[in-house]
Amino acid sequence: MAEQAPSDLPNEEFKPFCEWKRLEDSDVLQVHLAEFKKEELRVRIKNNSVLTLTGERLAAGDWKKIRFNSEIKLPKDTPPDQIRAKFGDSVLSITMPKKKASPASIDNACPRNFISGVKSSLARLKFSKESAVAMAVAGLILASGAYYLIENPNPH
């Protein structure tokens, strides 16, 4: 009986168990790959936006190849050149650091004062200095008139 060449072996596709951990400064993907060796795995990044994981090994005694292929869209805040992969104890750990916010983006994300943070139509109004002074004077006159009427209900 002739032996099959490795390229002629039947393939068995499988989906590995994955765990996604979100940390403050990074995301970590842990892929559980029992019976795989480091040399049988490949981690690549396509178009700076998709993480591609592939693996292929020979099944012991079954004369077939065990394969997997997974594609995962990278989080937008992940710099592709800083992604690191480590394989040990049958777990492929892929660490994806998050981009650090620049001081300018932090400054723009925080309201400069209380009014700019209020999400109402009043917060979006823009006044010139003259309009603001006129409104303040009108408010003061109205408040004074209301006080006078409360204190002197019967002026006759």
From TrEMBL:
One Pfam family it belongs to: HSP20
PROSITE patterns: SHSP
Transmembrane segments: 132-150
CDD domains for this protein: ACD_sHsps-like (cd06464)
Keyword Aminoacyl-tRNA synthetase applies: no
Domain spans labelled SHSP: 8-121
Domain of life according to the entry: Eukaryota
Keywords: Membrane, Stress response, Transmembrane, Transmembrane helix
InterPro entries, A to Z: A-crystallin/Hsp20_dom, HSP20-like_chaperone, Small_HSP
Keyword Transcription: no
Family: Belongs to the small heat shock protein (HSP20) family.
Protein name stated in the entry: 17.8 kDa class I heat shock protein
The species this protein was found in: Cucurbita argyrosperma subsp. sororia
Lineage: Eukaryota, Viridiplantae, Streptophyta, Embryophyta, Tracheophyta
